[in-house]
UniProtKB/TrEMBL annotation:
Its membrane topology: Multi-pass membrane protein
Keywords carried by this UniProt record: Membrane, Peptide transport, Protein transport, Transmembrane, Transmembrane helix, Transport
GO molecular function: oligopeptide transmembrane transporter activity
Species for this entry: Solea senegalensis
Keyword presence, Membrane: yes
Compartments, as annotated in UniProt: Membrane
Pfam families: PTR2
Keyword set includes Transmembrane helix: yes
PANTHER family assigned: OLIGOPEPTIDE TRANSPORTER-RELATED
Family assignment from sequence similarity: Belongs to the major facilitator superfamily. Proton-dependent oligopeptide transporter (POT/PTR) (TC 2.A.17) family.
Protein name, entry field: Solute carrier family 15 member 2-like
Length: 707
């Protein structure tokens, strides 16, 4: 007999399942939240490759549920499938965490471990995806339908709670905890790994309480075999064979008519799925392109609170919890009062429109974000800025260029990059410099599409120059970059926050390093501590790159801060509208789509539809993968392309929906006797059970959309 929670009809076993789901979703979304920045900052991949791998992983996570369903329904059953694939899941997390430890091999080893870990995680999370919720539903007795529906509400809340907390916490572990000399990705992946271990232990802990149904056989295999047989017979048919009204009717000699009719109903819904991947292509970019956009924005809310770029993803899960009751209890009833027939297919189309508008909003944000970016020089050109340390005006003449028609003043602010024409891939140039009436030649070697700083300073022998290559790309994690130009004869170490800069002597430039965004009114240096006692660098802001020129005033170092790349000046709050729009689109598209699909197909075909729905998510990620690697567009143009494609797909879907006729799947019970030869009266009783079961399945599906 199933043990119940005290005074209720709820099985005690569901406590273990809900906690398991919370920990598993924390594990998955926490790892995924920092994944794109891990590719960029740790593995040093570019944005397009990082986006492609992120979506390849997401796609695999939605292909593997089919495998999990096959294993559970045809072989092991749900319980053993969850156990075994959770072990695979844990191993994947551990491998992924080890791959984020710098001392474990070189970059090739890190990449190999990361990819193996992600593949194992994809098989683990995807494999248990179709099993956990259904296993929870199995714990209830058939007559306790109300309790079962409430369970799925609690189950759904645990999913979103895990998602919200993990996307808030793991970015903090990544950025605020320093390990191995930088962001602590090993910890950011290690904590989700630990939560997955907890999920597995908790689930096993309830093993003595679970109701376990044996494998019943997989309807997906039966559907595929029936379709394959019909195609084969149709292909081999001769002209003398009697014609069929539908190509599936060719399977009648082997399969019952009822199954064939059910598959026809199923295919009518699956045809409507064809345009749906485009929605997911936009939706799943929250963790890739939108996170990358956030790294180039101002993330400070006042002086006390700074958000991480990968934390913005929590808005979606948070808004889902807010929007679902608002739409169900407010917006939909109000639309009904206006006598507007908002059918399920119209809701789905409206969800597409909201998602397209979200990307239009993202486009507007992106256009403003890129205004602070330094564009690289075109082919045959390079970028050049000058630092005059000669304590007087200088005149600079560059052959075949008129970049500096006016004298350059001492410590000009800002230096500003100018485009220098080379006319070839590389070139030696002799630059003429005049200081205090004396002309000198400065010979330097330039390469195309590079950025340089040309430093002029004086020596007893006359004016001298040095050429330093610059780093003009904005930092991928949103933090500022800084370097020091020393005008003094002494070399020393200067520490900014937790970062130490070896500063060479004699008009030389230190290495360009990343520091935490902040106000550095005091820094330390060794061994010249006394000279640094009053050194004030001021605010080093998000996304900026600085050259700080160190001069000496009254035996103290003085800092002259030059801005090489402007700070991010678009606040991250401007991403809120696009997250709001995409979440509203998700509520209308995802929840409604599943409810519609499940109401339009026979009860025993629901698992096939679940697999079909998950495949639309998988193919949506494949679309992003193709565009990220193949289009080569500027980011704002890519956002606009996705918005346009989704609006076009929405029009196609609306036309398909216009010709769709809604059906009642229970009509099949009236049209056909089942294969066991039940009497008509028994079928009537089965109708009631089917309707009841349909309601449960609708609730189950509706409450599990964040799988």
């Amino acid at each position: 007999m199933t043990k119940k929670l005290c005074g209720t009809n709820y099985p005690t076993s569901i406590c273990f399942i809900v906690v398991n789901e919370f920990c598993e979703r924390f594990s998955y979304y926490g790892m995924k939240a920092v994944l794109t920045l891990y590719f960029l900052s740790y593995l040093k991949w570019d944005k397009d490759l990082s986006t492609a791998i992120y979506h390849a992983f997401s796609s695999l996570c939605y292909f593997t549920p089919i495998l999990g369903a096959l294993i559970a329904d045809s072989w092991l059953g749900k319980y053993k499938t969850i156990i075994y694939l959770s072990i695979v899941y844990v191993i994947g997390h551990i491998v992924k965490s080890v791959g984020a430890i710098p001392s474990v091999g070189d970059s090739t080893v890190h990449i190999a471990l990361s990819m193996v870990g992600l593949i194992l995680i994809a098989f683990g999370t995807g494999g248990i995806k179709p099993c956990v919720a259904a296993f929870g539903g199995d714990q209830f007795d058939e007559e306790h339908t109300t309790e079962r529906q409430k369970f799925f509400s609690i189950f759904y809340m645990s999913i979103n709670a895990g998602s919200v907390l993990s996307t808030l916490i793991t970015p903090l572990l990544r950025g605020d905890v320093q390990c191995f000399g930088g962001d602590c990705y090993a910890l950011a992946f290690g904590v989700p790994a630990a939560l997955m271990v907890v999920a597995l232990v908790v689930f096993i802990g309830g093993s003595g309480l679970y109701k376990r149904n044996p494998p019943q056989g997989n309807i997906m295999l039966q559907v595929c075999k029936c379709i394959g047989f019909a195609i084969k017979k149709r292909w081999k048919s001769s002209k003398n064979d009697p014609k069929r009204k539908h190509w599936l009717d060719w399977a009648e000699e082997k399969y019952p008519k009822r199954l064939i009719q059910e598959i026809k109903m199923l295919l009518r819904v699956l045809v409507l799925y064809i345009p749906l991947p485009m929605f997911w292509a936009l939706f799943d970019q929250q963790g890739s392109r939108w996170t990358l956009q956030a790294t180039r924005m101002n993330m400070a809310f006042g002086e006390a609170f700074v958000i991480k770029p990968d934390q913005m993803q929590m808005l979606n899960a948070l808004l889902i919890l807010i929007f679902v009751p608002i739409f169900d209890l407010g917006i939909y009833p109000l639309i009904g009062l206006c006598r507007i027939n908002l059918t399920p297919l119209r809701k789905i189309a409206a969800g597409m429109v909201f998602a397209a508008f979200a990307f239009i909003a993202a486009t507007i944000v992106e256009v403003n974000v890129v205004k602070t970016v330094v564009d690289p020089a075109p082919a045959g050109h390079c970028l050049l800025q000058t630092f005059n340390l000669a304590k007087g005006d200088i005149n600079v003449i560059i052959p075949d260029n008129d970049l500096y028609p006016e004298p350059i003043p001492y410590l000009q602010d800002p230096p500003q990059y100018k485009t220098l024409a080379l006319g070839t891939s590389s070139k030696n140039l002799t630059i003429q410099v005049t200081f205090n009436g004396t002309a000198s030649d400065c010979k330097q070697y330039f390469k195309q599409q590079k950025a340089y700083s040309l430093i002029f300073y004086t020596e007893p022998t006359g004016i001298q120059c040095k050429l330093v290559e610059d780093f003009i790309k904005k930092n991928e994690d949103g933090n500022p970059r800084v370097r020091f130009l020393n005008t003094q004869p002494e070399a020393f170490n200067l520490t900014v926050g937790d970062v130490t800069f070896p500063v060479p002597s004699g008009h030389s430039m230190s290495e360009n390093k990343t520091v935490e965004r902040g106000d550095y009114s005091s820094v330390s240096c060794s061994p010249l501590a006394e000279k640094c006692s009053t050194l004030d660098l001021g605010l080093l802001d998000f996304g900026a790159s600085y050259t700080i020129i160190l001069t000496e005033v009254l035996d103290k170092f003085d800092a002259k801060k030059m801005v090489d790349v402007n700070a991010n000046n678009v606040h991250i709050a401007w991403q809120i509208p696009q997250y709001t729009l995409i979440t509203a689109g998700e509520v209308m598209f995802s929840i409604t789509g599943l409810e519609f699909s499940y109401s339009q197909a026979p009860t025993n075909m629901k698992s096939v539809l679940q697999a079909g729905w998950l495949l639309t998510v998988a193919f949506g990620n494949v679309i992003v993968l193709i565009v990220a690697e193949g289009a080569g567009l500027e980011q704002w143009k890519e956002f606009l392309l996705f918005a346009g494609l989704l609006l076009g797909v929405c029009i196609i879907f609306s036309i398909m929906a216009y010709f769709y006729t809604y059906v009642d799947p229970d009509q099949l019970q009236k049209m056909h006797l089942d294969d066991s030869g039940k009497e008509e009266g028994d079928d009537a009783n089965d109708d009631d059970e089917k309707k009841n079961h349909n309601g449960i399945q609708l609730e189950k599906t509706r409450k599990s959309t964040r799988f």
